[in-house]
């Protein structure tokens, strides 16, 4: 039987052989009873469901890897932030006090006004505190799980774009 099919299709036309096989399978489907067609369709749906399940599991694993990476980044950022706070608490205070004393002495020698000297030193102190606050807020802005949350929302909830496309 295979020899007849092979001899019936020219060797240089694989597309014709594929079309003949497809036509034969369609004829076989039409000859099958309704129950068998239904079972075939159910089997195909089960295979598609399994494929969807495997891809969903892959997405969940990817979200887990993203969460792990963000957790490591968060831990590192918090460690660096804690080290910066310790530095501000110890060494920077001593250095800054020395600078303020020197500037205060020089300013008082030039102006001879305690009020202007104190105001200038306070202004300088607030400028440094503002710079420190901005540096810490930038560092702490990297703490979080924004990418993990975004992936979880894509996995578990229908996004607004997909919802609009469905309408």
Give a short overview:
This protein has 167 residues and is mostly helical.
Summarize the structure in words.
The protein is mainly alpha-helical. The protein has helices at residues 2-8, 14-31, 34-89, 91-111, 114-140, 146-156, 160-166. The chain has a domain at 77-144. 88% of the residues lie in helices and 0% in strands. The model is unreliable at 1-10 (pLDDT under 50). Residues 16-27 have a biased composition (Low complexity). Keywords: Membrane, Transmembrane, Transmembrane helix.
Write the layout of secondary structure elements.
Blueprint: H1 2-8, H2 14-31, H3 34-89, H4 91-111, H5 114-140, H6 146-156, H7 160-166
Order of helices and strands: HHHHHHH
- How far the N terminus sits from the C terminus, by CA atoms, comes to 52 Å
What gross morphology would you assign?
Answer: rod-shaped
Structural class: mainly alpha
Low-confidence segments, given as residue ranges, are 1-10
Instruction: Please provide the count of β strands.
Output: 0
Main β-sheet: number of strands, strand sense, barrel status?
Answer: none
Share of β-strand residues = under 5%
Residues in helices, as a percent range: over 70%
Discrete helix count = 7
Task: Indicate the mean pLDDT.
Answer: 80
What does the radius of gyration come to? 37 Å
Oligomer, anyone? single chain
């Amino acid at each position: 039987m295979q020899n007849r099919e092979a001899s019936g299709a020219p060797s240089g036309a694989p597309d014709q052989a594929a079309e003949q096989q497809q036509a034969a399978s369609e004829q076989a489907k039409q000859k099958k009873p309704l129950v068998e067609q239904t079972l075939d369709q159910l089997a195909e749906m089960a295979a598609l469901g399994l494929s969807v399940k495997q891809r969903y599991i892959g997405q969940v694993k990817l979200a887990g890897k993203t969460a792990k990476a963000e957790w490591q980044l968060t831990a590192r950022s918090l460690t660096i932030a804690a080290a910066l706070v310790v530095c501000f608490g110890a060494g920077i205070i001593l250095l800054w006090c020395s600078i303020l004393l020197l500037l205060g002495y020089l300013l008082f020698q030039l102006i001879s006004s305690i009020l202007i000297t104190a105001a200038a030193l306070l202004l300088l102190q607030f400028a440094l505190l503002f710079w420190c606050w901005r540096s810490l807020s930038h560092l702490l802005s990297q703490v979080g799980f924004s990418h993990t949350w975004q992936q979880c929302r894509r996995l578990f909830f229908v996004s607004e774009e997909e919802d609009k496309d469905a309408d």
